[in-house]
């Protein structure tokens, strides 16, 4: 890191949120969360249901108002001017869980155009963006004329993602984009998100409860528990604390468990790993060490 | 001697939006004996959910037949007996909970069966204990977590004392904790009550825990056997859009790059660690 | 937020009022409504107010909660009150500007309307707050069961009602989610003229309809799987039984409601 620090693209300061204040259902969902996101980062937010991760991301584009605390986009408090909130939402795209259930237009093309149309763009620009978004999610242009309701589940989800991408947001926040997909569908979805990050330079915040998935794609992990940030750091750092993770109701990848089991048997293997490839390297190094001397 | 579920040349035809006919199931022969914990694995659209729907006559064969507890599902007058013998739990827990209080929901099936009130109460309590949801018996279902809702749904069918429970991707919408709780409950029902479990899933880590795995693809039965025999077929499974446990991947990768010569059929953490321990200490090169 | 609406919700609890048979509660609420409309005299209303708020206190419901339930209907209450205030003709003219005037009768009538509506809502919410929807439909079904002999589909209606109640929170949650999702795509539900606002609802209503049909379909299948065949041969886990507490409840109600009506007639 060099000395001068850029303004983070997104910053959360002392954010707390309480639901249903004053009713028997009052519930503190977020408790003093601080977070800063740099341009071009790929962050995964992990936590089990009720850890506050969904509440957190709904603050990032102003869908929820903080009970206390601030959300800064390029250093500007997004809640300062309510009139600006809609504009912020075009720049911080948010894709909800099971987004295929939000499709409503007669054709796929019209549905994707909904966001850009709300932005007040020209028709020609909207058309361009729709076709660009279809490209970005790997769907053929011909699909634009179909009804969203006759597509397969996986296709619908891509259309929903295209609907957010068509707004060309600077930051893309994805809530469990692979929920309910089968392994192949999950793989494709991750490929796609990785491309959005690598090729289109989009800053990405991915919410997931799968450690495996998070570790594979993100460069930084944020683990949430009971409305607070519980652990944060590079994947290797975070997975080094397997016990803490299990306490947060999260499971570490099976390879990590295997290495931890070996370590528990007194074998000096480096357990800071989370993919099969890394585990192979660690095990080869370990074998050399064990047999070498 | 009949089997719990016996599908013979089972074929199911349906037409889609554009009126094209498809075969969701195409000549499937699959027999599940009493008391087995079977997993049916396959990618989306493989026909696994359609198979599940045939197990209690929600869907009826276009060709072939299905016998449930010896009863042919094509016979309309047997339909209620079939559904009593073989219950079903669905993917979305929200859409199968009928009542606004947990215990009322568990009682629903028994009320429909005309069980006397005292007996309903007894079975409801027992079922709720079995799924560890007794403390929540007075709660409103919509305030429960996904995993809890799904366990309520399981209690609801369990109370009806079926011989077999078919679960159609019961964990697809749950988080890891909810999934683990549901799996724990299924194993308990299998072990303690001897209930036949048919688990439809695309999570291989759940299928690993079954006694038997059947893999469907494009309406055909592709693989059928014990998890240990199925999950070493890495390439085959990958081509079917499925994955294998990381333990198998790890051992296979070590064999590939270091000629480790390890047996790759280790499905659990401990098994895999056992083999690695021997190898790391120079057991075999 | 939609989830903050408390009107018509059930609050689980175990107070005396929670344990009263739903049939008793339904009948007494009916009686209360009759009394509220029969009475118009201040003295009678004092008795009714004491009765209703006394019951609220016994049920350990916080007054704030009950008043919060009034919020969605506040506009209607104020509107009718204002209308009555200005448009009631009368002899005791207090103020006049063109066709609009305030009379003593107007003030009385407006006050009566406000009191009537507030007590009506507070009293009925006492029923919904302390009676689970399933008990409520159960109670209704049993009260109306004599009508089954006339081949009226009482069981089906009760089942539909209880399913509707079961799915209201689910659909409210879903509406919330869809609204948020469309807001994230720049939807604006709060500005523009009426037509514009109505149009802005389409992106919410279409997905909501689609998903409701899907839910209904799945629910119907799930119910069939659990051997639901309508009313045929059905038993119930919870047997309704009238007890001593119900008798006390009825006696108290007769004292207060009857007292109010007597006061009304005498004065």
Would you kindly provide a written description of the structure presented here, covering whatever features stand out?
The complex is a heterotrimer of chains A (293), B (285) and C (267). Chain A has 293 residues and is of the alpha/beta class. Helix content of chain A is 40%, strand content 21%. Chain A has a domain of 41 residues. Chain A is built from eleven helices and ten strands. Chain B contains eleven helices and ten strands. In chain B, helix 5 runs parallel beside helix 6. Chain B is globular. With 267 residues, chain C is mainly α. A two-stranded antiparallel sheet of chain C has the order 1-2. In chain C, a hairpin with a 2-residue loop joins strand 1 and strand 2. In chain C, helix 7 packs antiparallel against helix 8. Chain C starts with 15 loop residues before the first helix and ends with a helix. Chains A and B meet through helix 6, helix 10 and helix 11 of A and helix 6, helix 10 and helix 11 of B.
In short:
The complex is a heterotrimer of chains A (293), B (285) and C (267). With 285 residues, chain B is α/β, with parallel strands linked by helices.
Write the layout of secondary structure elements.
The complex is a heterotrimer of chains A (293), B (285) and C (267).
Chain A: E1 10-19, E2 27-37, E3 42-46, H1 53-60, E4 68-73, E5 76-77, H2 85-91, E6 92-95, H3 108-118, H4 123-136, H5 153-165, E7 171-175, H6 183-200, E8 203-208, H7 211-217, E9 220-225, E10 228-233, H8 235-239, H9 242-247, H10 254-264, H11 276-292
Parallel strand pairs in A: 3-8, 3-9, 6-7, 7-8
Antiparallel strand pairs in A: 1-2, 1-4, 4-5, 9-10
Helix pairs in contact in A: 3-4, 3-5, 4-5
Chain B: E1 5-15, E2 21-32, E3 37-41, H1 48-54, E4 63-68, E5 71-72, H2 79-85, E6 86-89, H3 102-113, H4 117-130, H5 146-158, E7 164-168, H6 176-193, E8 196-201, H7 204-207, E9 212-217, E10 220-225, H8 227-230, H9 234-239, H10 246-258, H11 269-280
Parallel strand pairs in B: 3-8, 3-9, 6-7, 7-8
Antiparallel strand pairs in B: 1-2, 1-4, 4-5, 9-10
Helix pairs in contact in B: 3-4, 3-5, 4-5, 5-6
Chain C: H1 16-19, H2 22-38, H3 42-58, H4 63-70, H5 74-87, E1 93-97, E2 100-103, H6 104-130, H7 133-144, H8 154-184, H9 194-200, H10 202-225, H11 244-266
Antiparallel strand pairs in C: 1-2
Helix pairs in contact in C: 2-6, 2-7, 2-11, 3-6, 3-11, 4-6, 5-6, 7-8, 8-10
């Amino acid at each position: 890191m060099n000395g001068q620090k850029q303004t983070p693209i997104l910053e959360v300061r002392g954010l707390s949120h309480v639901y249903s204040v004053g009713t028997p259902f009052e519930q503190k969902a977020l408790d003093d969360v601080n977070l800063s996101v740099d341009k071009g980062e790929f962050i995964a937010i992990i936590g089990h249901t009720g850890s506050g991760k969904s509440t957190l991301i709904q603050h990032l584009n102003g869908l929820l108002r903080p009970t206390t605390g601030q959300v800064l986009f390029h250093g500007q408090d997004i809640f300062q001017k309510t009139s600006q909130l809609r504009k912020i939402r075009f720049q911080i795209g948010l894709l909800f869980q099971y987004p295929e259930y939000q499709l409503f237009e007669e054709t796929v093309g019209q549905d994707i155009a909904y966001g850009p149309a709300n932005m007040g763009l020209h028709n020609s620009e909207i058309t361009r963006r729709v076709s660009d978004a279809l490209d970005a999610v790997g769907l053929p242009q011909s699909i634009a004329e179909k009804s969203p309701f006759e597509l397969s589940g996986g296709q619908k989800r891509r259309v929903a993602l295209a609907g957010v991408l068509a707004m060309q947001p600077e930051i893309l926040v994805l809530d469990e984009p692979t929920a309910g997909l089968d392994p192949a569908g999950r793989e494709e979805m991750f490929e796609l998100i990785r491309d959005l990050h690598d090729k289109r330079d989009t800053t990405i915040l991915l919410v997931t409860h799968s450690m495996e998935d998070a570790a594979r794609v993100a460069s930084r992990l944020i683990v949430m528990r009971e409305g607070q940030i519980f652990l944060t750091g590079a994947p290797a750092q975070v997975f080094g604390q397997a016990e803490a993770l299990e306490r947060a109701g999260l499971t570490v990848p099976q390879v990590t468990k295997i290495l931890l089991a070996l370590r528990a048997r007194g074998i000096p293997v480096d357990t800071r790993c989370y993919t099969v490839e890394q585990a192979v390297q660690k095990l080869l190094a370990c074998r050399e060490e064990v047999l070498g001397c | 001697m009949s089997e719990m579920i016996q599908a013979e040349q089972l074929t199911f035809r349906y037409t889609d939006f554009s009126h094209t006919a498809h075969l969701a199931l195409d000549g499937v022969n699959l027999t599940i004996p009493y008391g087995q914990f079977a997993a049916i694995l396959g990618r989306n659209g493989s026909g696994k959910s359609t198979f599940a729907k045939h197990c209690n006559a929600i869907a009826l064969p276009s060709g072939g037949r299905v016998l449930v507890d010896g009863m042919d599902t094509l016979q309309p007058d047997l339909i209620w007996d079939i559904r009593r013998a073989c219950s079903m739990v669905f993917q979305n827990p929200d859409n199968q909970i009928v009542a606004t209080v947990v215990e009322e929901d568990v009682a629903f099936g028994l009320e429909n069966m005309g069980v006397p009130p005292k007996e309903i109460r007894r079975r409801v309590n027992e079922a709720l204990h079995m799924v560890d949801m007794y403390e929540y018996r007075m709660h409103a279902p919509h305030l429960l977590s996904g995993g809890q809702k799904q366990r309520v749904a399981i209690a609801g069918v369990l109370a009806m004392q079926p011989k077999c429970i078919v679960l159609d991707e019961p964990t697809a919408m749950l988080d890891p904790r909810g999934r683990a709780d549901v799996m724990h409950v299924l194993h308990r029902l299998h072990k303690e009550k001897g209930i036949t479990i048919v688990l439809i899933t695309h999570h291989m880590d759940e299928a690993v825990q079954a006694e038997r795995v059947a893999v469907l693809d494009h309406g055909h039965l592709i693989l059928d056997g014990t998890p240990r025999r199925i999950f070493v077929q890495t390439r085959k499974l990958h081509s079917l859009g499925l994955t294998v446990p990381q333990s198998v991947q790890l051992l296979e990768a070590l064999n590939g790059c270091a000629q480790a010569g390890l047996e790759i059929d280790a499905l659990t953490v401990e098994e895999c660690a056992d083999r690695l321990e021997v190898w790391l200490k120079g057991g075999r090169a | 937020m939609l989830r903050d609406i408390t009107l018509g919700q059930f609050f689980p609890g175990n107070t005396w009022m929670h344990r009263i048979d739903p049939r008793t509660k339904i009948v007494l609420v009916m009686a209360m409504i009759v009394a509220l409309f029969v009475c118009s005299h201040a003295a009678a209303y004092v008795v009714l107010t004491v009765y209703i708020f006394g019951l609220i206190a016994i049920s350990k419901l916080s007054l704030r909660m009950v008043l919060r339930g009034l919020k969605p209907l506040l506009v209607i209450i104020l509107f009718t009150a204002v209308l009555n205030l200005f448009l009631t003709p009368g002899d005791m003219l207090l103020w006049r500007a063109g066709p609009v005037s305030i009379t003593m009768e107007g003030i009385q009538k407006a006050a009566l309307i406000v009191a009537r509506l507030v007590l009506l809502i507070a009293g009925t919410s006492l029923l919904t707050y302390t009676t689970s929807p399933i008990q409520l439909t159960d109670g209704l079904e049993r009260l109306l069961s004599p009508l089954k002999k006339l081949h009226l589909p009482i069981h089906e209606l009760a089942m539909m009602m209880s399913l509707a109640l079961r799915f209201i929170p689910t659909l409210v949650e879903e509406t919330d989610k869809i609204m948020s999702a469309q807001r994230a795509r720049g939807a604006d539900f709060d500005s523009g003229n009426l037509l514009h606002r109505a149009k802005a609802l389409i992106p919410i209503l279409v997905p909501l309809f689609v998903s409701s049909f899907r839910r209904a379909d799945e629910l119907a299948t799930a119910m069939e799987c659990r051997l639901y065949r309508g009313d045929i041969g059905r038993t119930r886990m919870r047997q309704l039984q009238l007890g001593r507490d119900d008798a006390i409840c009825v006696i108290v109600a007769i004292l207060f409601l009857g007292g109010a009506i007597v006061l009304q007639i005498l004065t």
